[in-house]
Design goal:
Length: 70
């Protein structure tokens, strides 16, 4: 998945990615960020947070689950 995101970003630099994951490991988060992710959310986030994250990322911001930020 990370490789696909990186390949897409290489061709379409304006593309923004939000990773939805159940893996909170530093390695997974680092791989997502290196691939160009604008966000990394855990799959158990409430719908309202997911919706807010999508809107923020669309506006060019970054968004992460609170547990990822810690």
């Amino acid at each position: 998945l990370h490789e696909a995101a990186a390949a897409i970003r290489a061709r379409q630099t304006a593309t923004r990615f939000l990773f939805l994951a159940c893996d909170l490991s530093d390695i997974a988060i680092e791989q997502a960020l290196r691939a160009g992710a604008h966000g990394y959310l855990l799959k158990n986030e409430p719908y309202a947070f997911l919706k807010s994250a999508l809107l923020r990322i669309h506006q060019g911001e970054f968004c992460f689950s609170r547990s990822v930020e810690n």
